[in-house]
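Example record

The entry below shows one chain as it appears in the dataset: sequence first, then structure tokens.
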Amino acid sequence: MRLRRLWNRTFQAPAGAGADDPPALVADESLDARYLDFLRSKVVPGAKLSSLRMCWLREWRAYKLGPELFESLGAKVIAIGIEPDGRNINAVAGRCTSKDCKNV
């Protein structure tokens, strides 16, 4: 019971929600931009990625940010299977090979 009171004090339930309803989660897209800015700040100044060609395979955890990061730094990125729908995140995990990129 103490844990429930602590939870309720820490995460206030939205209006109309019962005391036992967990708070709704809301995506904050600004965090993506802040994280990308942070990662770009770690790149060696003057580094040129324009000659880099890379293949970003399937639904890795960074399915959205990875290609965006490397493209913003000048790399040519070929993204394959980066459209997770909440069910296919691991649909073909472990089955990606260099042939997947070679055929693109």
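Notes for this example: The chain has a mean pLDDT of 75. The chain is about 35% helix and 10% strand.
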